């Protein structure tokens, strides 16, 4: 386990339990109390948790973890989802991607796809994104044309938000929008934690002919603060496990195609 992976697990454990002792974390992760103490101090310095006497407490259920602390969560499921989403993309397509761990994985698969290589002077694929990490990672791929929206970056997610994003997106027509979400339910549709990111995702969906939500099973049946769109505006859901009965019924009623990644 790398230091980053251990910090991730420590932070997840604290977030899930709310309040923990150093002994609790040491036992759960099979590491020494001294290592836990150093990790908790480091995470407290980064304002990701609150240090207490003999342990730590979470900042709150609505707190959004920075992107780097989400990278290894549901990794196998996200990889499978990304491959399935890439299968929906044809050579020459224009694809809108919002930010997040799942869409970042989609970008990696698209960037390494031989099927989408450029033909002559035509790019193999055009990616329009508000996520700085996705743009940076794909900038070295010769077959990918990258278009980055304007906007102001959020340090939590590397996403650009604000009115400049919408001004950029209004000039485009996309074949496909691939959206990562934090929650998906029948009542509230697709949701995310930050209202600015919800608005950007909504704008990306508005200028796309097909809207695909890429979400692992932990997001299904969950609602977060800011609404992106109702289920009726989603064409396809790509996930890693079959939805629960109530979510599945809502998706079917809304006409959403469900693809379970193998």
From TrEMBL:
Q: Name one Pfam family in it.
A: HTH_DeoR
Could you give a GO molecular-function term held by this entry? Answer: DNA binding
According to the entry, every stretch annotated as the HTH deoR-type domain falls at: 3-58
The yes or no answer to whether the keyword Signal is present is no
Q: Which UniProt keywords apply?
A: DNA-binding, Transcription, Transcription regulation
Q: Which residues form a coiled coil?
A: none
The cross-references to SUPFAM superfamilies, in alphabetical order and at most eight, read:
NagB/RpiA/CoA transferase-like, Winged helix' DNA-binding domain
Name this protein carries in UniProt:
DeoR/GlpR family DNA-binding transcription regulator
The lineage, from the top, is:
Bacteria, Bacillati, Actinomycetota, Actinomycetes, Kineosporiales
């Amino acid at each position: 386990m790398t230091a980053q992976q251990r910090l991730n697990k420590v932070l997840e454990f604290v977030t899930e339990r709310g309040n923990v002792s150093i002994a609790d974390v040491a036992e759960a992760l099979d590491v020494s109390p001294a290592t836990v103490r150093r990790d908790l101090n480091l995470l407290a310095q980064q304002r990701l948790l609150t240090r207490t006497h003999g342990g730590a407490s979470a900042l709150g259920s609505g707190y959004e973890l920075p992107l780097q602390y989400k990278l290894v969560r549901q990794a196998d499921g996200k990889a499978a989802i990304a491959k399935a989403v890439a299968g929906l993309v044809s050579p020459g397509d224009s694809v809108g991607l919002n930010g997040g761990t799942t869409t970042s994985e989609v970008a990696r698969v698209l960037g390494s796809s031989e099927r989408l290589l450029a033909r002559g002077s035509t790019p193999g694929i055009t990616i329009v994104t508000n996520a700085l990490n996705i743009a940076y990672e794909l900038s070295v791929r010769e077959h990918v044309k990258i278009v980055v929206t304007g906007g102001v970056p959020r340090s939590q997610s590397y996403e650009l938000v604000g009115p400049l994003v919408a001004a950029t997106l209004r000039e485009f027509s996309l074949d496909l929008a691939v959206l990562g979400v934090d929650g998906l339910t029948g009542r509230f549709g697709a949701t995310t934690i930050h209202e600015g990111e919800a608005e950007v995702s909504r704008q990306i969906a508005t200028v796309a002919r097909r809207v695909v939500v890429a979400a692992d099973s932990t997001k299904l049946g969950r609602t977060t603060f800011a609404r992106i769109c109702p289920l009726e505006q989603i064409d396809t859901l790509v996930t890693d496990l079959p939805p629960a009965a109530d979510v599945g019924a809502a998706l079917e009623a809304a006409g959403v195609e469900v693809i379970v990644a193998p």
